[in-house]
Amino acid sequence: MVIRLRLARFGRKHRPVYNIVVMQARSARNSKPIEVIGTYDPIPRKPENGEDGKPFKDIQLDVSRAKYWLGVGAQPSDPVWRLLSMFGALEPRYKVAALSALNPDAAKPHPAAKDLLGKTPSEESKAVPKLFTAKKPEKVAAIDAWMKDPSVPKPPVWGEAAKAFKQSSA
């Protein structure tokens, strides 16, 4: 049995409030949990003391119980992982977009990822339209010639391409 830390939705329409719960992974979202370890209100609220402060989201969490369940082997869902990382119970996960902003070389494909044509998969998908991806060598040769030299006539679409190649090979 896999135990997960996840969110269970409560509240009314357009005003959600989530309980941070410990549940079995296969149980329904709002079924009875093993334990409720906190609450999360995703709607920002203004400070109640009348000050002009920045709106905040209310998060209440029993960190000791969260650490216990993580130590026992419970797996947090992605939103719960983010909430637990705010409290310092887990290391934050970084998204690929955030990493590529920090390190532009991380988004580039590895040099070993080149295929047989000598292009990376991302370059090839940009260069050749999906309509013209074929396994027959004569079609690929016609497409490559057209891609390299725009003065070469554009290869016809599939039905016309078969007729044209049959006539040229005969």
List the helices and strands and how they pair.
Elements: E1 3-12, E2 15-24, E3 35-45, E4 56-61, H1 63-72, E5 75-76, H2 78-87, H3 96-102, H4 121-127, H5 137-148, H6 158-169
Parallel strand pairs: 1-5
Antiparallel strand pairs: 1-2, 2-3, 3-4
Structural notes for this entry:
The termini are far apart. Residues 113-117 and 123-134 have low confidence and may be disordered. The chain has helices spanning 63-72, 78-87, 96-102, 121-127, 137-148, 158-169; strands at residues 3-12, 15-24, 35-45, 56-61, 75-76. It folds into two domains: 3-94, Ribosomal protein S16 (S16 Ribosomal Protein, Chain: A, 2-Layer Sandwich), CATH 3.30.1320; 111-165, no CATH class. The longest helix is centred in the C-terminal third of the chain and has 12 residues, at 137-148. It is built from six helices and five strands.
Straight-line N-to-C gap: 66 Å
Low-confidence segments: 113-117, 123-134
The CATH topology assignment of the largest domain is S16 Ribosomal Protein, Chain: A
Q: What is the CATH top level name of the largest domain?
A: Alpha Beta
Biggest sheet details = 5 strands, mixed
Helix content: 25-40%
CATH superfamily placement of the largest domain: Ribosomal protein S16
Beta-strand percent range: 15-25%
Rg computed from alpha carbons, rounded to a whole number of angstroms: 28 Å
For the record, the count of structural domains works out to 2
- Oligomeric state: single chain
The assigned structural class equals alpha+beta
Number of strands: 5
Query: Strand arrangement, largest sheet?
Result: 4-3-2-1-5
Shape: elongated
Order of H and E elements:
EEEEHEHHHHH
* Number of discrete helical segments: 6
